[in-house]
Amino acid sequence: MATVLSSTSSTVLLDKPLQLDSGQALDRVTIAYETYGELAPDKSNAILVHHALTGDQHVASPHPITGKPGWWDRMIGRGKPIDTDRFFVICANVIGSCMGSTGPASDAADGGRYGMRFPVITIRDMVRAQVALLDALGIGQLHAVVGGSMGGMQALSLAANFPERAARVLAIATTPRHSAQNIAFHEVGRQAIMADPNWQGGDYYDSGNTPDKGLAVARMAAHITYLSEAGLTGKFGRRLQDREAKSFGFDADFQVESYLRYQGLAFTDRFDANSYLYITRAMDYFDLAEEHGGRLADAFAGTPARFCVVSFDTDWLYPTAESRAIVHALNAVAAPVSFVELSAPYGHDSFLLEVPSLDRVVTGFLNG
User: Fold this and answer.
1) 149 included as an active-site residue
2) Subcellular localization, per the record (predicted)?
3) Are strands 76-77 and 168-172 parallel, antiparallel or unpaired?
4) Which of 164, 277, 302, 330 would bridge 335 by S-S if both were Cys, CB 3.0 to 4.6 A apart?
């Protein structure tokens, strides 16, 4: 029988408004988070793990809605690469999300849901909220920040904007800014949500009708970008469902169609459509160079942290060239950095799946 990792689920209500890049301030911000392991008396063993777009704070514990293992259960735990016998691991739900942290589904000051009245947020705003959480926990400097995909964006943002807060930065399968293609894929998903009649301009919370169809299509479109062509071909090819295929129709004739529909429908059980709109927009706005005068190297000028950047050879969403741009910027300011491109068949999702070489990289970097 598998051992369930002990975790603590908590929330923090920030004691002052959170200033946002938009110029607005978000009042009464709640941050939901989980912790694993024990914090050392000198608080030197804390690791902050940032989640990706559709992730949450349940990084290594069963999800309360789906019952599935945490999204990085294979990486965090006793004797695992992020070893909870040694490290105190924190994972917080980002603001704008829907798993306990303040977001569009939260109550505004007038008692109604925010909906589309929720202020525009950025990746840097998410990081500001998590730094406020660290302050509430009394943690000055982290042993490391770790993140993949959007989590990697947060790790880089923390290193650039709060350089004294982390001794190590591990950024996996990520990018310093979104390409036009990335933005285009996200816009398809957003339009699918907003085209659903049940979206109702974002004011659907008390209507009894949620834009599940639009959100499912958004998830399907995004999920394609997380996989590799070789991986899809190997897993599904052009195989039909185990039934007599219709010549044409709206039923899922191909196995890959059925798989994508399942991914889309399952997603609607645990995620909020408005949160998807806000978080994808935050990712699209992210441009670490633009935040620091247009030169990526200037984002890391004077950072004392050690960096490790990891990419995957089949990741076409954030290809290796994006990671190399980060490494070149770090080299330009003489920041200590190691870089590796790993071979894996799973595309962008490789950082979430069984890739033993990634385990070795994570273990070596955090324990070195």
Assistant:
1) yes
2) Cytoplasm
3) unpaired
4) 330
Task: State residue 253's pLDDT score.
Answer: 83
Catalytic residue (choose from 50, 178, 186, 348): 348
Active site residue 228: no
CATH for the 8-178+287-367 domain, from 3.40.50.1820, 1.10.150.120, 2.60.120.330, 3.40.50.150? 3.40.50.1820
Query: Known binder of ligand: residue 86?
Result: no
172 in Cβ contact with 191 (< 8 Å) = no
Catalytic, out of 186, 275, 315, 350: 315
Q: What are phi and psi of 159, to 5 degrees?
A: -65, -35
> Model confidence over 123-152: pLDDT tens digits?
999 999 999 999 999 999 999 999 999 999
> 149, 311, 323, 350: which one is catalytic?
149
Residues of the chain with pLDDT > 70, as a percent, come to: 96
The upper half-sphere exposure of residue 49, i.e. CA atoms within 13 Å in the direction of its Cβ, equals 29
- Asked about 15 being catalytic, the answer comes back as no
Number of H helices, E strands in the chain: 11, 12
The mean pLDDT of the chain is 94
